[in-house]
Amino acid sequence: MEIRGAGTIARAAAQALKDYALVQETTIKQEFDSQLSRAAEILVSTRPTAVSLPNAVRIVMAYKGGSVNEARSDLVRQADEFISTSKEATRRIGLIGSKRIRNGNTIMTHCNSQAALSVIAEAHRSGKNIKVIATESRPRLQGHLTIQQLNELGIETTLIVDSAVRYFMKDVDLVVVGADAVTANGSVINKIGTSQLALAAHESRTNLIVAAETYKFSPSTLLGEMVEIEERDAGEVIDPEKLSGMKHVRVKNPAFDVTPSSYIDLICTEAGAISPEMSYIIIRDILGWDVRDMQEIIENSTKNQDE
Ligand code: RUB
Question: Which pairing describes strands 272-274 and 266-269: parallel, antiparallel, or unpaired?
Fold first, then answer.
């Protein structure tokens, strides 16, 4: 949790693989490959929900080269390229998404998403007079980071508790949130409580847009695989000492939830704004995955398990 937000996590993973490749002393290519694969596995296992992480690792690990030196320099190139295109993607999402914000709009946001903030910041930068309502985002209070960033930008911001979302929805023109993952059918996985915002927005006919880089789209959902929802420590919710005195009570602390595509009006990616139903096209045409590739991978892994 020192590094958080799906985009930042992806860039940190790319940087970590690069740093690790640079300190490898071996001249044996097989050893280099296995060290890097092991590091990639560890990185991917740290955060199960943010699909940006395995996508970033897969991109960086697609390095080529016959010798260690060649492989290392190709990996470094892939990592640097991923990091810079990821930053550029956030900037482009801001340009694309801010077109949906009108002068005088009040925007509600949840948690701390750099992609969603890019949309809001760009609307402000282009001279639109906007206000923001930001949720505190219990239990880790990422909303405090958001209000700090909005304050630095000079945007008039109101902080609310998560349970006040429906109460304030009548004052909101547009909800803008980020994503940890987008499934092939256009559902969005984001900070716990996002689906509650979406439900309240849907009820009051307020539009909701998701700001998500294309590497947040999940290829494995093409075959119906579910995105794993990370369950975090109970100590984030209640003091363990207080809890230990209550033997009939247990705590559940899922960090993310799923917002169905029917509650999402638009997904703003760096490749353009799409309706959630177009998510498959992003996975196929931008990420380069097809249902057939997925089937082949599954068949091969089943074969390996059988052997
Ligand atoms: C962060 C979170 C963010 C998404 C998108 O959760 O849910 O909305 O990751 O962020 P946590 P970004 O703080 O638990 O990682 O747009 O910055 O990728």
Answer: antiparallel
9 Cα to the center of ligand 1, angstroms: 9
CATH code of the domain in which 161 resides: 3.40.50.10470
Catalytic residue among 111, 162, 265, 268: 111
Closest CA to 259 of 299, 224, 210, 298: 210
49, 155: one domain: no
Examine the domain organization and report whether 58 and 190 are in the same domain: no
- Number of structural domains found in the chain: 2
Span 245-267, average pLDDT = 97
Q: Say yes or no to pLDDT of 307 above 60.
A: no
Residues 79 and 118 in one domain: no
- With a pLDDT cut of 70, the percent of the chain lying above it is 94
Whether the predicted pLDDT of 136 surpasses 90: yes
**Atom 7 (ligand 1) nearest CA:** 191
- Please give all residues whose beta carbon lies within 6 A of any atom in ligand 1, as ranges: 4-8, 111-116, 142, 178-180, 190-191, 255
